[in-house]
Fold this protein.
Amino acid sequence: MRISTITKSCLSALFLILGMGYANAQADYTLDTNLEQNKGKNSSYAGNCDVTVDGITWNVTGNATMLPWRIGGKSLTDTDREVYTKTAYPSAVKSIDLTVGNASSITVNSLKLLVSGDADFTDATEYAADFQANSTITFAPAEGEFPEYSFYKFVFNVTVSDKSNKYVQFSKVEIYNGESVGPEKNLVGLAVSGTPADLWQGDQFTHEGITVTATWDDQSTEDVTERCQYSGYDMDATGEQTVTVTYKELSATYDVNVLTIANTKETAYTASEAIALIKAGKGLKTPVYVKGIVSKIVTEYSSSYGNITFNVSADGTEEGDQFQFYRNIKAENTPWTDEDIKPGVGDEVIGCGVMKKYKETYEFDFNNYLVDHKINKVVATISVDEPRESINIGESDTYQVVYDGDAELSVASSNTDIAEVSLDAETNMVTVKGIAMGTASITISAPATAKYTEASYTYVLTIVDPDKSLAVWIAALQEDYANAADVAENYEVNGVTLTFSLGEGKNAPKYYTTGEGARLYNGNTMTVSVEEGYAIESIAITFSGETYTGAYEASVGTYTDGVVAEWNGFSYSVTFTATATSRMQKIEVVYVKDEAGTGIAETVAIGASGEDIIYNLNGQRLGKVQKGLNIVNGKKVIFK
């Protein structure tokens, strides 16, 4: 409904509010706060939002992101909330209609209009009105018109007793020019001329570049560009669009092109390209991809907020164009965590976000995120100054470690029952002590840091007993082993002979990189033997896992199966027969001198009376004696 009131100026002069006025006339200017294009940016009830509509910029002290606009707040007492023009309205004004909507638990103590020739409203004339929700209130001077190029301010004095936000809706302003009063003439034509400027996705609509001309029935024309309503466009969409221009009862159309700066990860902008776009000031509400090499960590990672701020450039230096990833997060809506590897200087990154300029910094707005992260760290290396490959039980070896990174070194032994290790952190000197006979892997390592990669150095150390000999055979270290290759028949390793045989199996022994072991199939054999005058005391066989031990059967001695199987006895030769498929990675043989020759006697069995039991030196039973040394009924016999 329309309200008629009596108002007065600050000079106490009385003015008549027009009750009927131009209720059925077409307004010369309309601010409709229900329209999406008239949304502001500040979400605070007490914030200041600027919204430009048809060349007139309005400021609202309140929440202009809502439709319609909301004026209010919480816990207020006699507080002014204002809506005013920051642009002078060029024409003289006969009357202004103010339409307000619902009031939500808020008291409007007073409502007034201030009219001034100055943007700061000095020496303003005041027009008061009674407030009523869901109504249209008309402001007009009792005589004459509001002057041309005036500024207008609506002031709501409000009270809110609640601590939650309460508001009154500010719906519409309709301005009727003074020139609309007088002899009535009819609008007979509306024409659009000019070349519209390109629009950019996400930006506010503008009719820049076009002129709208009205033609009246008296053949007069008028530029009404700033008084028209513009519709039909979608600033979130791209491509050719048709805009409808409406003035009074007539409409016309023209085409615009809405462009976008959006790109893809593959076409990410460089720092220089991103800065050029920001300087152009077009399409800066659209997320884009930007790439570069991290040149500087501006703000270290914050575990409280899960973000980090850094600069990128084309070459990773702090020279030339710098683009900032402000408060960057790991992925879309996913903050960084303490465990994540964050971007460091020298890393190549591609991020996605909305660009802007803050003071003198060209940057992504906060909550930009990474879509690609390539860590380009310096490769760290570790070398050791001539470590010994074997030492005796009870001996120690000390050597210098050379490391070119910036982390703290650590050293470890794969078997501390065989070899103990220690490190002097100040000098990077390593000391290794032999504990028991066997082999152990000694590893010196350093973790990755922000600048350097991780690094390690490993070598195999053998601990020997002066009174015993040790032979170690490792499948993966045999030069003639390719994947799926047959295992060679014989190997000589430090006085020990390994002989592999098909035996009663269907497939010959083979080497496979999976499991890094020699595979003995059911029925295959492996004979371990030493020269005459020596006897094997123990054998340790390492397999790749519990399901690949092969369950060997030994020709003599005691065999205990397991991931590290053990054989114990005293024999110059022992033959192992596989009863299942095995993946044998390593064999360690300990043998000693056998001056009494007792090792051979244990290798063969004693036959029944009158029957000769004959074996060769490999422990294989023979049908008859061969030239050379034979074992006959448990005794060494030489045949020539």
Remarks:
- Residues 1-24, 601-610 have pLDDT under 50 and may be disordered.
